[in-house]
Specification:
By secondary structure, this protein is an alpha/beta fold. The N terminus is likely disordered.
């Protein structure tokens, strides 16, 4: 896998080269451009990923940083005086009593998940690369390491539970991250993963809109998301890394405003001030509203949805 400092860096790489898939190691095919980023898809397992890949340090300093404003609103939330969200209810129900369990949250942000667990008697640890949100978590008395997981150098077989909530799609090397999670988990420890699922109606239908009308594919959002998994290829990777699926559920249909923002069509119009771009944005938004409404109505009938929450056991 070839890495570059940033998408605008001057690098020499072959546009005709087929990069290797992280999961099945097949040569992958060019899929599309989103903004200035090139995305490829594995013809065998279906993994979609950015290529050339961005460097970890660039992501840390320029993309997921306090300087970029990433998750700036999370650093301002007063968790001590806020009612807990329902986002973690299914995880808490699965875990049962957290008392005495040593739990690591990777990508801890402002510490919301750890704060809930600490109040339930867990021994909590977090890893976060955003200094601003990490500081917010520390103000709650949480133990947060600022940096990448491998730099924290946790001992082997140290944690009962490791949580990867909306993290797997952000990292440059998912296999490396999962292998490190396997190392630091106790035997029969639990790995919790929440991530997007590209094998769902919404992702497929919006890709069809891209191919038919040229509407940017909202389901892919580089540089913040750089790997895009399906339910099947994610399980394939987890199995390769020594994890057994224990429980899962599909949840959270896409948020309409997020998807519309991910089209970047308003930004395009503001830059061009072209009536054609304005009309195209209106057309795209109208199609998305109709599709989103249909997707919502179909939710009870869908076998898979836009996001998956899954629990794995270390073998």
């Amino acid at each position: 896998m070839e890495y570059i400092r940033s998408h605008s860096a001057t690098v020499c790489y072959d546009y005709f080269m087929k990069p290797q898939c992280h999961i099945c190691h097949s040569e992958s095919d060019y899929l599309l451009n989103k903004e200035e980023y090139r995305l490829y898809q594995c013809p065998k397992c279906g993994l979609i990923f950015l290529y050339p890949m961005l460097e970890d340090e660039y992501l840390k300093e320029e993309v997921y940083s306090a300087k970029s404003g990433y998750q700036g609103h999370r650093a301002k939330e007063d968790l001590a005086n806020m009612p807990p969200t329902k986002r973690f209810d299914a995880i808490l129900a699965y875990l049962g009593s957290a008392s005495g369990k040593r739990i690591l949250d990777i990508g801890a942000s402002n510490g919301e998940f750890l704060y809930l667990l600490k109040k339930r008697g867990a021994d909590t640890y977090g890893v976060e690369i955003n200094t601003k949100t990490a500081s917010a978590a520390r103000r709650l008395g949480l133990n947060i390491f600022v940096g990448f997981l491998e730099d924290a150098k946790f001992s082997d077989n140290y944690f009962d539970i490791v949580h990867l909530g909306d993290i797997l799609e952000h990292v440059t090397d998912p296999r490396k991250l999962l292998i490190e999670c396997w190392r630091i988990l106790k035997p029969d420890g639990t790995l919790i993963i929440r991530t997007l699922n590209m094998d769902c109606f919404w992702a497929k239908a919006t890709l069809f809109f891209y191919r038919l009308f040229g509407i940017p594919w909202s389901a892919v959002t580089p540089p913040h998301h750089i790997h895009f998994f399906s339910w099947d290829n994610m399980n394939q990777l987890l199995d390769q890394c020594g994890f057994r699926l224990d429980w899962h559920r599909f949840e959270v249909p896409p948020a309409l405003m997020y998807e519309l923002g991910s089209l970047h069509l308003v930004k395009r119009y503001k830059k061009s001030r072209n009536v054609r771009d304005l009309l195209f944005a209106g057309f795209a938004f109208a199609l998305y509203v109709v599709l989103w409404s249909f997707d919502r109505l179909m939710t009870p009938l869908k076998r898979k949805d836009n996001e998956v929450l899954a629990m794995y056991i270390k073998e």
